[in-house]
């Protein structure tokens, strides 16, 4: 009995508690990200944004959630039922499972696996299935066009994202996310983060994650002025809400990935008195919030790309440039004998 | 250990079931979705064996890229399953023969009558013990030292195949106006704008 408790039951309870401790705050963060988006874009366009429900509109996300839940789930008559229902679930699940390997602080991670960054890359590359399945199962023209656009777009930008990750990995010498963060710890604080030595890669990575999460200015899969809402046209009520939650959770995930790869994860900007009093998870959240703000800033600033321009940018600009930068980084690391030691 | 065995059987059973569904499903899109499920469970089996790098690469390459393109193509083609089944009896013999040859080959390899007994010794030489290095590093060390020429050769073959595919499908269409961003950026004010003095009462 004791063996059963200590061998199986207790670890299960601990893991479930850890999952709850991540998913709960994540869903609240998603809810307030939708509010922050409307507030930030409102401020940039000299509007007030939502300010009626609750103080400063703070209860707006919950009002929206309740409204969505009250609505009727509509199933198009020609739809492929199982795939149609599975697609939003898949999107939402994939946006949650990736958080298993994200380190929030030193040792604060559910699963500290050796190939953490590959796991993140794999999960983020699966996100396209939710979109394709939704587009195909809806059995209607606009969703299908949206799904095809999304498939081509996400596959294209993954290539340059992969090469950017390779440059970072060459500097770190490990695929483990905690190792990647610790490799950015140094005497110069902020200046040791890879955002500075690898600045062009940082910029390309940021643009690629915009494309990877289907956010403006690359939101062609749902481009509402041409194909209404793309793959989400036929969805309503909670199935639509799951897509919505999945998209925003993915934004937060990609921001976390940027923070880990380029902005030193949970490390404080300067390792001196007032800064290193603040615990790591708070620095990590601040960095995520900064990247998220850039997401919204871009959305308020840039018009949508045309489709051929999007493909040109991915294949003809980013791919050759990142490839060149991989070679350059490798050359510098080998030439100046800076390669990370094997451990 | 019980949990591991249990998880293994779940992964293995789902892989086989999904593999069967790939060839029996009526809808081609469902076939591809089952194929993805099979890939995914195979990755799970890799993780159970301690080969986490291979598992992740399997998901990134096959599920994340190859299967996406499969799905892409299958969705766009309007495949008529009934028509494809028409010549079933005619091709049964050839198909069966190919299957038989593959089966015999597999049996021969597994029963190790044609495999040299030294092969395990030869193959295991360059692989360091997993206690010293984890399998990503071990794989890299083998791939980029002992097998570097073969590795580069396979890369070249893939590159040639890619260029071949591009050459075969590339066509120059007449009357297409392409955007040349460099020209647009290099345009000066003098070329773009013309200022005319228009006297009132008459046009240009």
TrEMBL record, chain A:
A Pfam match: NADHdh
- GO MF annotation: an example: NADH dehydrogenase (quinone) (non-electrogenic) activity
The alphabetized UniProt keywords are: Cell membrane, Membrane, NAD, Oxidoreductase, Quinone, Translocase, Transmembrane, Transmembrane helix, Ubiquinone
Known InterPro entries for this protein? NADH_UbQ_OxRdtase_su1/FPO, NADH_UbQ_OxRdtase_su1_CS
Subcellular compartments:
Cell membrane; Membrane
Q: Which residues form a coiled coil?
A: none
Q: Which residue spans traverse the membrane?
A: 12-35, 82-105, 117-138, 159-178, 190-211, 240-262, 282-302, 314-336
Q: Which reaction does it catalyse?
A: a quinone + NADH + 5 H(+)(in) = a quinol + NAD(+) + 4 H(+)(out)
- Family annotation (PANTHER family): NADH DEHYDROGENASE SUBUNIT 1, NADH-UBIQUINONE OXIDOREDUCTASE CHAIN 1
Subunit description:
NDH-1 is composed of 14 different subunits. Subunits NuoA, H, J, K, L, M, N constitute the membrane sector of the complex.
Q: What is this protein called?
A: NADH-quinone oxidoreductase subunit H
Question: What gene name is given for the protein in this entry?
Answer: nuoH
From TrEMBL, chain B:
Is Lipid metabolism found in the keyword set?
no
The residues that cross the membrane are: 6-25, 32-51, 57-79, 91-110, 147-170
Q: Which GO terms describe its molecular function?
A: NADH dehydrogenase (quinone) (non-electrogenic) activity
What is catalyzed by this enzyme?
Answer: a quinone + NADH + 5 H(+)(in) = a quinol + NAD(+) + 4 H(+)(out)
The EC designation for this entry is 7.1.1.-
Q: List the Pfam families.
A: Oxidored_q3
Q: Which InterPro entries match?
A: NADH_UbQ/plastoQ_OxRdtase_su6 (IPR001457), Nuo/plastoQ_OxRdtase_6_NuoJ (IPR042106)
Q: Where is the signal peptide?
A: none
The entry's keywords: Cell membrane, Membrane, NAD, Oxidoreductase, Quinone, Transmembrane, Transmembrane helix
> Where in or outside the cell?
Cell membrane
Membrane topology designation: Multi-pass membrane protein
Entry function: NDH-1 shuttles electrons from NADH, via FMN and iron-sulfur (Fe-S) centers, to quinones in the respiratory chain. Couples the redox reaction to proton translocation (for every two electrons transferred, four hydrogen ions are translocated across the cytoplasmic membrane), and thus conserves the redox energy in a proton gradient.
Homology family: Belongs to the complex I subunit 6 family.
Q: Which NCBIfam families match?
A: PRK06638.1-4 (NF005164)
Q: What is this protein called?
A: NADH-quinone oxidoreductase subunit J
